[in-house]
Design brief:
The protein is α/β, with parallel strands linked by helices. The protein folds into three domains: 277 residues, Aconitase, domain 3, CATH 3.30.499.10; 169 residues, Aconitase, domain 3 (2-Layer Sandwich); 200 residues, Alpha-Beta Barrel (Aconitase, domain 4), CATH 3.20.19.10. 32% of the residues lie in helices and 18% in strands. Helix 15 runs parallel beside helix 18 and helix 22 packs parallel to helix 23.
């Protein structure tokens, strides 16, 4: 500081006055860039401060950190109606990030909007289309070859419309964001459900569908239902085998896969300071598994340390000046509070088949024996967007080094996925990668890989019962390898490494012994590793493409005969009538995630071609009529057949249809294909007991009706052979239920009520046929 501003600062501090004015002046003076890649786009803490002060004065109460950042980005803070869990907020996010699988549809929608450039800093990250087969370099070369058309489309579309492009091999979107784009107080939206990873650096980072990203890139205020705030108070400190991953594994066990729906999870308390910045990111990342809107940690010295080490000391210094706005107000109120004593927290492992089935590592072997889960671990997999930091790799290497010292290697197969090119290059330089190879590991490409089903697995046959342990975030049936009999468990990278060495779920590294090559028993010591490299990070290869200043001559080609890409046609408008005699395509039994609705893995190659990818519609969902997947009755022919074929038959014959779902329908990924596909094949409504947040919004964006039973028991009144009529659409209004007449084949009828969460803007999307159609209407 200059001497003058320092004296003002000290004088105001002595009087107990918040240093807002001084900080604002410093911000004007500093003009700190949001990232190295966008030197002319500045962090606006001054605007954040102004908006927070307006809202605090209006609400007349202390604010949580989540509220500060969210309300600090309001489009109209003076007049916005604010009620947690009730009102819809109109927000102005700072930036957009898209991964390559969802960016295809997002950019196709942006192209059809007719706008010349994106209105906010935006990036595309190539991480989803690289299949794990034999190892990093070969897998990357193969991916570049088979995905050339898609990569070319994304690169040229990025160049044309002003979007930064991270080439294949650069790393996983969330690690790249943490290293380059996230900062305390940022409001970032990303077309991937694990975007909340950025909360580890004190930002509000929210996963959305592509249509939401298009709104923000178009400069339109983004709508979000005002989140509730769940406070997680951490006391004590992490030690021994307990890791940051165990915090979220424990929270998932408490809140379940839908317990965070409609809420931001805000961590606070003295225990926070014992967790590294990348550890906080791990916790926020997997918050997606409890349905949370996002998760966030307050700004602290661990974040400052990370910003400094990643070349952003200017942002760290600015954050220090505005620290009051980057932590919760004393006395702020949470809608729910969970308290976890880190001194007492034990290593956890969650699964199989759902990420909220929590077990202490010490107990999982006994539970597995009782339940009949395979004890033998076939593969251990570390990395992914959740756990691929320098610290994660260091702790895993520390475990592996002990095994090697006793002449042991992994009994299970073992794979390592670096989170970014920077992490890969740095762990190669510092010897971690070689240690992990020496213990039996294969280092895969800097990409999502097996975590999202991009795994050409050869060691088992489909249908073979087996167990894998991963440091990933999600473990739904068939997610990693398309085998419904694979029992996948999620835990920390160091526990995965220990279990892969032992080869069994019965092993507890805290108490159990291994036998060395010399026949002597030994116990693994709790791993210890640096949270950040002692030298600077090695950036590795340059994998970033800046958008050109002049893109007027840039072409973006989509071949009309392409099997990978397809320009979008507008969906039809609502015809102004009630929806009569809707056929039930499928009544879903039990869990139905976005993986069940629109599978990933081999289907990822069609993410830019709506008609082709629609051939996976609901193929994983269980039909209540026969207990089978991808087998539904055609109401006209009375024959059973695949779900997509039946939907196409109905569409061809002008039969509109509806899906009936269970609880938390659409949990999991942010993929909007799970909404685009039913719309494309003639669906009009999805009626469930409850929805996951992102999927419900995605359905609205595409002109579908996501509706919930006013009485959840009414789910049992509807049978697959019934027809439904939805009434009240002419008077469609926020908060007003719709009527549903159930017409049974025997001629009898029942009437039930259906609730919805549409606001006025979203009702306009429905009437226009989609949010994109409505955007075009407003432009005209």
């Amino acid at each position: 500081r200059s001497m003058g501003s320092l004296l003002i600062f000290r004088g105001r501090k002595a009087l107990g006055v918040r240093q807002y004015h001084v900080a604002s002046v410093l911000c004007q003076r500093a003009k700190v860039a949001m990232s190295h890649f966008e030197p002319n786009e500045y962090i606006r803490y001054d605007l954040l401060e102004k908006n927070i002060n307006i809202v605090r004065k209006r609400l007349n109460r202390p604010l949580t950190l989540s509220e500060k950042i969210v309300y600090g980005h309001l489009d109209d803070p003076a007049n916005q109606e604010i009620e947690r869990g009730k009102t819809y907020l109109r927000l102005r996010p700072d930036r957009v990030a898209m991964q390559d699988a969802t960016a295809q549809m997002a950019m196709l929608q942006f192209i059809s909007s007719g706008l010349p450039k994106v209105a906010v800093p935006s990036t595309i990250h190539c991480d989803h289309l690289i299949e794990a087969q034999v190892g990093g370099e070969k897998d990357l070369r193969r991916a570049k070859d088979i995905n050339q058309e898609v990569y070319n489309f994304l690169a040229t579309a990025g160049a044309k419309y002003g979007v930064g492009f991270w080439r294949p091999g650069s790393g996983i979107i969330h690690q790249i964001i943490l290293e380059n784009y996230a900062y305390p107080g940022v409001l970032l939206i990303g077309t991937d459900s694990h975007t909340p990873n950025g909360g580890g650096l004190g930002g509000i980072c929210i996963g959305v569908g592509g249509a939401d990203a298009v709104d923000v890139m178009a400069g339109i205020p983004w709508e979000l239902k005002c989140p509730k705030v769940i406070g997680v108070k951490l006391t004590g400190s992490l030690s021994g085998w307990t890791s940051p991953k165990d915090v979220i594994l424990k929270v998932a066990g408490i809140l379940t896969v839908k317990g965070g729906t409609g809420a931001i999870v805000e961590y606070h308390g003295p225990g926070v300071d014992s967790i590294s910045c990348t550890g906080m990111a791990t916790i926020c990342n997997m918050g997606a598994e409890i349905g949370a809107t996002t998760s966030v940690f307050p700004y602290n010295h661990r974040m400052k340390k990370y910003l400094n080490k990643t070349g952003r000391a200017d942002i760290a210094n600015l954050a220090e000046e505005f620290k009051d706005h980057l932590v919760p107000d004393p006395g702020c109120q949470y809608d729910q509070v969970i308290e976890i004593n880190l001194n007492e927290l034990k290593p956890h492992i969650n699964g199989p088949f759902t990420p909220d089935l929590a077990h202490p590592v010490a107990e999982v072997g006994t539970v597995a024996e009782k339940e009949g889960w395979p004890l033998d671990i076939r593969v251990g997999l570390i990395g992914s967007c959740t756990n691929s930091s320098y610290e994660d790799m260091g702790r895993s290497a520390a475990v592996a080094k002990q095994a090697l010292a006793h002449g042991l290697k992994c009994k299970s197969q073992f794979t390592i996925t670096p989170g970014s090119e920077q992490i890969r290059a740095t762990i190669e330089r510092d010897g971690y990668a070689q240690i992990l190879r020496d213990v039996g590991g294969i280092v895969l490409a800097n990409a999502c890989g097996p975590c999202i089903g991009q795994w050409d697995r050869k060691d088992i046959k489909k249908g073979e019962k087996n167990t894998i342990v991963t440091s990933y975030n999600r473990n739904f049936t068939g997610r990693n390898d398309a085998n419904p009999e694979t029992h996948a468990f999620v835990t920390s990278p160091e526990i995965v490494t220990a279990l892969a060495i032992a080869g069994t779920l019965k092993f507890n590294p805290e108490t159990d012994f291994l036998t060395g090559k010399d026949g002597k028993k030994f116990k693994l010591e709790a791993p210890d590793a640096d949270e950040l490299p002692r030298a600077e990070f090695d950036p590795g290869q340059d994998t970033y493409q800046h958008p050109p200043k002049d893109s007027s001559g840039q072409r973006v080609d989509v071949s009309p005969t392409s099997q990978r890409l397809q320009l979008l046609e507008p969906f039809d408008k609502w015809d102004g009538k009630d929806l009569e005699d809707l056929q039930i395509l499928i009544k879903v039994k039990g869990k139905c995630t976005t993986d069940h609705i629109s599978a990933a893995g081999p289907w990822l190659k069609f993410r830019g071609h709506l008609d082709n990818i629609s051939n996976n519609l609901l193929i994983g969902a269980i039909n209540i009529e026969n207990g089978k997947a991808n087998s539904v009755r055609n109401a006209v022919t009375q024959e059973f057949g695949p779900v997509p074929d039946t939907a196409r038959y109905y569409k061809k014959h002008g039969i509109r249809w509806v899906v009936i779902g269970d609880e938390n329908y659409g949990e999991g990924s942010s993929r909007e294909h799970a909404a685009l596909e039913p719309r494309h094949l003639g669906g009009r409504a999805i009626i469930t007991k409850s929805f996951a947040r992102i999927h419900e919004t995605n359905l609205k964006k595409q002109g579908l009706l996501p509706l919930t039973f006013a009485d959840p028991a009414d789910y049992n009144k509807i049978h697959p052979v019934d027809k439904l009529t939805i009434q009240g659409l002419k008077d469609f209004a926020p908060g007003k239920p719709l009527k549903c007449i159930i017409k049974h084949p025997n001629g009898t009828q029942e009437t039930i009520l259906l609730n919805h969460t549409f606001n006025e803007t979203q009702i306009e999307w429905f009437r226009a046929g989609s949010a994109l159609n409505r955007m075009k209407e407003l432009q005209q």
